[in-house]
Automatic annotation (TrEMBL):
Belongs to the ZIP transporter (TC 2.A.5) family. It is a multi-pass membrane protein. It comes from the Eukaryota. Coiled coil: none annotated. Transports zinc ions across cell and organelle membranes into the cytoplasm and regulates intracellular zinc homeostasis. Participates in the zinc ions efflux out of the secretory compartments. Also functions as membrane androgen receptor that mediates, through a G protein, the non-classical androgen signaling pathway, characterized by the activation of MAPK3/MAPK1 (Erk1/2) and transcription factors CREB1 or ATF1. It is found in: Cell membrane; Cytoplasm, Perinuclear region; Golgi apparatus, trans-Golgi network membrane; Mitochondrion. This is Zinc transporter ZIP9.
Length: 173
């Protein structure tokens, strides 16, 4: 049954997507912890903690609605819950003092933070933005989607992406 297979795949895909998201959170947390800037560490920690509970609630709600039994839901939730701490430890150890000397040429902490931010931008532009603009992704051929984003909305999106670049001009560390 293709519909049953698609429903089963959506459970795994949803969990996998949130695990990758949590792993990116862990990269950001590990990179922040490897710096000596307490304010950066605190901001990243608070930002992750503020959205982790709603993400876990959403995952469990989706899996319960999809009809998964409680034992399997607990396993999915455990994998999701462990992704951020495990990746933060791996990132922290990868950026530890001994390896920082070898990685100082590339500013590995900055690259790790950029990687984590890039995953959020990817999810926002590929998955969230089309749904907001009325162009939701569908596997059905008869679905034509919505009207899309207006030129003003696209201009605002591009301007928002360029603001960090403009703010960084003349700012050196």
């Amino acid at each position: 049954d293709p519909e049953a297979a698609r429903a089963g795949n959506s459970k795994i895909t949803t969990t996998l997507g949130l695990v990758v998201h949590a792993a990116a959170d862990g990269v950001a947390l590990g990179a922040a912890a490897s710096t000596s800037q307490t304010s950066v560490q605190l901001i990243v920690f608070v930002a992750i903690m503020l959205h982790k509970a709603p993400a876990a609630f959403g995952l469990v709600s989706f899996l319960m609605h999809a009809g998964l039994e409680r034992n399997r839901i607990r396993k999915h939730l455990l994998v999701f819950a462990l992704a951020a701490p495990v990746m933060s430890m791996v990132t922290y150890l990868g950026l530890s003092k001994s390896s920082k000397e070898a990685l100082s040429e590339v500013n590995a902490t900055g690259v790790a933070m950029l990687f984590s931010a890039g995953t959020f931008l990817y999810v926002a532009t590929v998955h969230v933005l089309p749904e907001v603009g009325g162009i939701a992704h569908s596997h059905k051929p008869e679905s034509a989607g919505g009207k899309g984003l207006s030129r003003l909305e696209v201009a605002a999106l591009v301007l928002g992406c360029l603001i960090p670049l403009v703010l960084s001009i003349g700012h050196h560390h």
